Amino acid sequence: MEANGRTTSSDRVKIAVVGCGAVSELRHLPALAAGDGREISALVDKDEARVRRLADEYGAQHALTDHRELIGLGLDGAIVATPTNLHAPMTIDLLRGGLHVLVEKPIARNLYECDAMIAAAQEMDRVLAVAFFRRFAHQLRLTKTVLDAGLLGTIRSFDIRDGYEFGWPVKTDFPFRREAAGGGVLIDLGVHVLDLVTWWFGDAESFEYWDNDRGGVESDCLLHVAMPGGGKGVIEFSRTRLLRNTAIISGDGGTLEVDLNTSDFILSLSESRTGITGSAFSGNPLAGTNQDPIELFTAQHDDWLDAVLTGGTPAVSATEARRSLGLVVDCYAHRKELELPWIETAALEEAVR
Hints:
The protein has helices at 22-34, 48-58, 87-96, 111-124, 138-148, 178-181, 185-201, 293-310, 318-333, 341-352; strands at 13-18, 38-44, 62-64, 77-80, 100-104, 128-131, 155-163, 206-211, 220-226, 232-238, 246-251, 254-259, 264-269, 274-279, 335-337. With 353 residues, it is an alpha/beta fold. The protein has 2 domains: 13-133, 3-Layer(aba) Sandwich (Rossmann fold), CATH 3.40.50.720; 138-287 and 318-337, Dihydrodipicolinate Reductase, domain 2, CATH 3.30.360.10. Strands 14-13-12-11-7-10-9-8-15 form a 9-stranded mixed β-sheet. Helix 4 (111-124) runs antiparallel to helix 9, helix 5 runs parallel beside helix 7 (185-201) and helix 7 (185-201) packs across helix 9. The chain starts with 12 loop residues before the first strand and ends with a helix. The model is unreliable at 6-10 and 284-288 (pLDDT under 50).
């Protein structure tokens, strides 16, 4: 380690994973094992049997049930993949203990927690990154390049639909409890897209938001936004229905439709009446074009650790993640009720009885 506490490039980076639920077991741990120059040194989870099983599987030296036990073990960084209500207290403890942190999205439930995390990272001069793996998808990076190059001209509108029937193998019920998760589909699935929207277009100037929360957490929601430069956006999220799962961006110079989950895109340019249909990827054109989830998680680990090694800024810093969280918080604060035809019909029938 260097005097400033950052790992030198010749060292093997020692990493802990805090929270051994599905995202760690299915994504973070396989991605860390597939990466170069890193060692899974410790795992932490309140389920002692689970953490010991995974520690044995990945050769971790320490299997712990309290994240505070990581302090003093000579580790370089930690990935925090716990329920959202634990992100802030655990991350702050680890930062103050001298570790660099990659925390799962959303960074926190609210801006108060987020700002406390940012302050701790600044105070301790540690890298705090947020796990938005879609930032490393080739086709979504291509979208940023197309927009920055002005190929679509002035952006007039965009339409993004992201949804599927919920089937993630959660280990607890925290995604369905507002006090633990901070909300429902908007803060869980939706924050991925809102991160892309703020990255691509900037911060929203105004918005209208509707969801179907009737006392629990929302499973479906709709957002209309007005962006800098006059562009208007429609964004829809669902945990109950399979949606289109693409972003369609239209400008006075052309239109781009990009898949949110695969490398497919269609770029149509108005002036030439021509366009491009294909897949966005790097490397050998004969190789497979779609990135699997492990590749995306490995890429975000690489980005975080490169910032640790160089003292640079990760692709999604905590300050960057605050932008999309801020929009989520504003949406919840100004929520309108999403019209549900079957409920309205039932209410009407009840009224006429």
